[in-house]
Amino acid sequence: MYMKKVKCERLNDQGQGIGYIDNKIIFIPEFLPGDEALVRITKDKKNYMEGVIIDYITLSKDRVKTVCPYLNCGCPLKALNYQKQLEFKQEKLQNIMRKFAGLTDVVTDIIPSKEISYYRNKITLKVKNGIGYYKNGTNDFLPIDGCALAETRINEIIKVLNTLDLSNAKEITIKAMDEVMIIIKGKIDINKLQKYADSIYMDGKLVYGKAFITDSIDDLKFKVGKDSFFQVNNSMISVLYKTAISLATKKGTALDLFCGTGTISLFLSKYFDKVIGIDINEDAIECALENRKINNINNVDFICGDANTLCQDLKADVIFVDPPRSGLSKDGINNILNIKPKEIIYISCDPITLARDLNILKEKYIVEKIIPVDLFPNTYHVENIAVLNLC
Ligand SMILES: C[S@@+](CC[C@H](N)C(=O)[O-])C[C@H]1O[C@@H](n2cnc3c(N)ncnc32)[C@H](O)[C@@H]1O
After folding, report:
1. Residue 306 alpha carbon, nearest atom of ligand 1
2. Predicted structure pTM score
3. Which residue has a Cα nearest atom 18 of ligand 1?
């Protein structure tokens, strides 16, 4: 394929640069607004092209030096100065809400992350020819010797893993909270890993240390299992939860749908007479029940099952929902509308499914505001908190 000089006009929602060649749109990774580069066309379709940079000609004034040496990893925004990253995320959310939910003037200023690098408490690495990631949106494997998103202890473990025979392993997840857990799909000689971990699982079986690890958020302690969800940006977990909780003005009974290990429920226990958390993951509910005990809290109940359907028999003044990226099911939305809570606080890491669900909920609720919270610097992802009041 041929090469062309292209100027980056703006970013798409996935953080790829957008340029034009003879009025046809082209998507280019590692390309920031203001950059000009010599680009090799890798795909030429009827309505769009894709390309890769051969050489930069002019660099954007918004570029910064990156700590990550890799190109096309999971951090398309890492070379963009942080203030511009925040503007990109806020505008993206505004556009999605206008386009898919007909909502304007509801997105507030974004809350920045306290840490921009080395903030993740969990990463999952693929094992192929070494350990690494798939390059953004492709099946191309990128072997790594460190990750500038992952916290220091994870980087130490990556270095050790790179000295081991990984030929019988497929995937390795590392969680570094107050304690460290390594979860291996496949087989590895774990002798050299033990001094870095409190818990090691291999093919689903505990082979070293504790079954659960712990993390602390403010004055609360949490047990976290190998399969349970936990927010990944430790510096921002308490900011996210406290912001969400401060937005609820009503008191009484709260539901925490998709409660994971019970984090939001236990934070809520101080402000509500009664809290009920529901999650489908048994490992997470086992942790939630234990977390209630460790923190000596007795006004919170947990139920294991599908939150979309199990909530239908419950009553609540305020409902907190924090579903996976797929958002709420139709049943879930109908059941919430039937419960008629005075307020809904909807936490979401996927603005598209959030907009889809708000578009239905807004028939009975006023979407007062949506606060973006940057839990994922250098990536195109953003967490959002929507506040809905009964009409
Ligand atoms: C984004 S996480 C939120 C967890 C928790 N609120 C937190 O902050 O740690 C989504 C949670 O939804 C749970 N989940 C997924 N589908 C579910 C369903 N149909 N019913 C209940 N929980 C579900 C997952 O197990 C996961 O714990």
Report:
1. 20
2. 0.95
3. 306
